[in-house]
Amino acid sequence: MTLTSDERRAERLASDEHAVDMLEVARRAQGVDIAGFTGPDAVKLVAPAKVNLFLDIGAKRPDGYHDAVSIMHALMLHDVLRMKLAPGCGEGLSLDLACVAREGLAQLDVPAERNIVAKAIRLLADKLGRANDETVVACIEKHIPAEAGLGGGSSDAAAALLGAAHLWGVPADDPRIEEAARALGADVAFFLHGGCACFTGVGDVFAHALMPMNTNVVLVKPEGGVSTAAAYRAFDEHPTIIPEASRDAALAATHAADVPLCNNLVPVSEQLLPELVDIRTWAGARADVQRVLMSGSGSAVFVQCPSFADAGRVAADARMRGWWARATTLGPTRAAVVPNR
């Protein structure tokens, strides 16, 4: 029996959710007390990755930021956040933050208070004027690699804003949540919208939504990453200008499939991490690959494939070459509260 595209997509989604649930044994083995995050006093959230279908970095502004047009698309690959409230320590808001790495990823080497999730929770509390003596306990289950241009940290921050709001009884559409998101970084606000959307300003101002795709893609990442700051410094020294026709076509697109794939940070990021050239060349030469583009400032490259079976083969070949790789799909997802199980 031949499955329809919607049936195949539903099957993949069910498989992804099953894979997340099957990790509970591994979580316990690593000391994460999932039982402590169940019940009505806890909340579970998903934080999807993204790719940039179009990224046009402009001139540096007097405030040090760059003008940008960014069309981002969410992926079905996601981190999982679990949050709950606990008694305070007599010092107002306290945070108890843990992180568990999955997918063969290295453990994050970031002090808890410097993690963007902690910053997000504190910032929202400030904007809400919340001064309760309480502890927000959070566990981040990482499936999205860091320094990859996939927005993992930004998505975690967006999910943390929604999770804290949920725990504090604040509606998810409270404008202070998006204010906090924009203050945290250019990509954070996107994950409150999800799907596919165009952002302008410095990449933080929502312009319009586009009809998303459910295209099969493979994410490929070499060892090491590209520092966003280093990429922008190199770009300022050697900027690449996107043709006006491509920019106009991107801004006029109403469907993700019509967006011309383009990223003017690619040349400088490939200079900073030459292995990105190897990935682009390898992927571009394959008959089972349709389009290839680096996301953000790198170091992940996304590879569009005709079918999920093709994506699986491409991912397996990439791993054989020593690269981290994951087959997934583009989708309409966003940072969101999900059933806590």
Q: Which SSEs are present, and which pair or pack?
A:
Layout (H helix, E strand, L loop, with lengths): L4 H17 L2 H6 L12 E19 L5 E22 L5 E9 L14 H13 L5 E9 L9 H16 L7 H10 L3 H6 L2 E5 L4 E6 L5 E6 L6 H10 L6 H9 L9 E2 L2 H7 L2 H10 L6 E4 L6 E5 L2 H13 L3 E6 L6 E3 L3
Parallel strand pairs: 1-8, 3-4
Antiparallel strand pairs: 1-2, 1-12, 2-4, 2-5, 5-6, 7-10, 7-11, 9-10
Catalytic activity: 4-CDP-2-C-methyl-D-erythritol + ATP = 4-CDP-2-C-methyl-D-erythritol 2-phosphate + ADP + H(+)
Protein name: 4-diphosphocytidyl-2-C-methyl-D-erythritol kinase
GO molecular function: 4-(cytidine 5'-diphospho)-2-C-methyl-D-erythritol kinase activity; ATP binding
Percent strand equals: 25-35%
- Average pLDDT: 88
The oligomerization state is single chain
* CATH topology tier name: Ribosomal Protein S5, domain 2
Helix amount, in percent? 25-40%
Protein name: 4-diphosphocytidyl-2-C-methyl-D-erythritol kinase
Catalytic activity: 4-CDP-2-C-methyl-D-erythritol + ATP = 4-CDP-2-C-methyl-D-erythritol 2-phosphate + ADP + H(+)
EC number: 2.7.1.148
Binding site for ATP: 145-155
Folded structure, characterized:
With 341 residues, this protein is an alpha+beta fold. It has one domain: Ribosomal Protein S5, domain 2 (2-Layer Sandwich), CATH 3.30.230. Helices cover 34% and strands 28% of the residues. It has 11 helices and 12 strands. It has helices at residues 5-21, 24-29, 116-128, 152-167, 175-184, 188-193, 228-237, 244-252, 266-272, 275-284, 308-320; strands at residues 42-60, 66-87, 93-101, 134-142, 196-200, 205-210, 216-221, 262-263, 291-294, 301-305, 324-329, 336-338. Strands 1, 2, 3, 4, 5, 6, 8 and 12 form an 8-stranded mixed beta sheet that branches. A 4-stranded antiparallel beta sheet has the order 9-10-7-11, covered by helices on one side. The model is unreliable at 1-31 (pLDDT under 50).
